[in-house]
């Protein structure tokens, strides 16, 4: 399941990288920063990415998923820091929804 989720998220990150011309997002891996000073991603691109990932996950798993909720925002370390932390967060959400 992790590989399937990773593929969905990485493709969404690539799309945002192309759409917003953000070089670091054009060839993402699990260590690619999505949030924070060294990410190169502005707030508009991050919000767009979150929406893109939510849509792609809903299409893939036939179940809507909300990433930017109170739970995500209340964590001491943001699940949006890197591609890998976002993958882990999605797995956690899907595990709890079963």
UniProtKB/TrEMBL annotation:
Entries under InterPro entries matching the protein? ACP-like_sf
Q: Which domain of life is it from?
A: Bacteria
Per the UniProt record, the lineage of the source organism begins with: Bacteria, Pseudomonadati, Verrucomicrobiota, Opitutia, Puniceicoccales
Protein name (record): Carrier domain-containing protein
